[in-house]
Design goal:
Radius of gyration: 26 Å
Order of helices and strands: HHHEEHEHE
Number of strands: 4
Number of helices: 5
Strand content: 5-15%
Structural class: alpha+beta
Shape: rod-shaped
Distance between the termini: 65 Å
């Protein structure tokens, strides 16, 4: 029986190492692919300040950000397609695929359900 070094120098040993490296690269590629989409699964975090309350933030931490009306509208609303049968939260993938001209907005779940819509099965939080 030979040593490991002799086995690796043989033709059979080289083939074994090559198969191992190819398998390892495949596993790493799969893992990187899964990591690249893992950020899309969660809903965004929204912090609310109660009406009338003031929040004091140190000047070093203050960040100015312009909020468009559409972003403010979307915080607590539901969206559906004119031709669809389901409603979504604005950040769900199904809602993002709806063209802007086909979007119908509802203020509450009850309003969307009264219009004959049901919650989207793939939209977490509904």
């Amino acid at each position: 029986m030979g040593t490991i070094a002799e086995f690796l120098r043989s033709c059979k040993g080289r083939d074994t190492v090559l198969v191992f490296v190819v398998c390892l690269l495949g596993i790493l590629s799969f893992a990187l692919g899964r990591l690249s989409v893992s950020g899309e699964l969660g809903a965004p975090v929204v912090l609310y300040v109660p009406y009338g309350a003031t929040a004091s933030v140190p000047a070093s931490m203050a960040v100015e950000r312009e909020v468009s009306p559409s972003m403010a509208e979307q915080e607590s609303r539901f969206v559906a397609s004119k031709n669809g049968s389901v409603y979504h939260l604005p950040w769900c993938s199904g809602a993002q695929r709806i063209n802007d001209e086909n979007k119908v907005w509802y203020d509450t779940k009850d309003a969307a359900e009264a219009a004959g819509l049901r919650p989207a099965a793939n939209c977490k939080g509904l």
